[in-house]
Design a protein that fits this description.
Elements lengths: L2 H12 L4 E4 L2 E3 L4 H12 L16 H11 L1 H8 L1
Antiparallel strand pairs: 1-2
């Protein structure tokens, strides 16, 4: 059988929509909301947007280096 023949056979026997999960594997959902959720996630695209115009924020290590550099005398006095 071809994929479409199997799908047509299942739909004619059961009387409901069959969803192809893989070659030769079909699902028939009792809960139509679950079927719609599956279909939505199946075709949903995900985007990883990266803003190119904003400056890079300093990391925590860079922030610490800046604080130590700005208050170097204070830290030296504290440690002595």
């Amino acid at each position: 059988y071809t994929q479409s023949e199997i799908k047509g056979f299942l739909e004619s026997v059961i009387g409901d929509n069959a969803v192809a999960l893989a070659p030769g594997i079909f699902a028939i959902f009792k809960d139509k909301e679950l079927e719609q959720t599956y279909q939505k996630h199946r075709y949903q695209r995900t985007y990883e947007w990266q803003q190119k115009t904003s400056p890079q924020l300093p990391t925590d290590a860079e922030k610490l280096r800046i604080v130590f550099a700005q208050n170097e005398e204070l830290f030296k006095a504290f440690w002595l």
